Amino acid sequence: MGIAGNILLTRTAAGRTQEQLAEAVGVSRQTVAKWESGETSPDLEHAAALADALGTTLDALVSFDGGSLGVAAPPRGRHLFGNVKVGERGQIVIPKEARDLFGIKPGDKLVVLGEEGQGLALCREEEFMAGVEAVMAAARRAAR
């Protein structure tokens, strides 16, 4: 999609007007309109300011490709890794980029958590159990 579409989608997803974004970046509303239409592109300094104002990364603002889905560039620290297909037995393949980012290796055990209406989440078994143990220790201290 490119930076023009990412600026537009991310700005609208954030609920900001062109005027508000222009003020945050230090340019005119017309400049933001030209960036969003693709008539011009922001220089590196303004692109970095845009990413900061929109709460995303410069990389996501420039290269994220969620346009076919109408999805804005993801906020800092949050990622959209694409979609996966569920196999006959319920198996899924976690995308390589996600495995690399979170250090997930073959043989690792993950806990699958779910909340109706919210979705599913994966958590490393050892981190989940450390959280359970911390809660139990706090409960024991409180019971004394």
Please state the CA-atom Rg, rounded to the nearest Å: 21 Å
Strand order of the largest sheet: 1-2
Q: CATH homologous superfamily of the largest domain - what is it?
A: lambda repressor-like DNA-binding domains
Number of strands: 2
Q: Pick out the low-confidence regions.
A: none
Q: In the CATH scheme, what's the topology name of the largest domain? A: 434 Repressor (Amino-terminal Domain)
Biggest sheet: strands, sense, closure? 2 strands, antiparallel
The ordered string of helix (H) and strand (E) elements is: HHHHHHEEH
Number of helices: 7
What structural class is derived from the secondary structure elements? Answer: mainly alpha
Average pLDDT, all residues: 88
> What overall geometry do the principal axes of the alpha carbons give?
elongated
- Determine the fraction of residues in helical runs and give it as a percent range: 40-55%
